[in-house]
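Protocol step 4 of 6: structure prediction from sequence.
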Amino acid sequence: QVQLVESGGGLVRPGGSLRLSCAASGNLFKFSAMGWYRQAPEKQRDLVATISSGGGTTNYADSVKGRFTISRDNAKNTVYLQMNSLKPEDTAVYYCNVVGTGYWGQGTLVTVSE
């Protein structure tokens, strides 16, 4: 059993930054690739970024390349998403996921607005 808890969302102005965190319970974390997804109102949930179990391989959606950075700390069972140069179209609920499983967090809302 894995529990994921996201935090760090909030309201930020365009051009601003936020860092999301996802804390995982259980022993699977250090052996698992992790992903961040987001879902805007009335849209499907889309992949934002993934990171391999050891952190050496990352992948990003084209829309966030160069602005977002995914990282992880296996000693703390935590995966992060650093988001810079935020745009209004980044507004969404952000979820973390153990890649290839049905384990999801509850989500954290990011709103980018003046």
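Step 5 (inspection) to follow. The chain has a mean pLDDT of 96.
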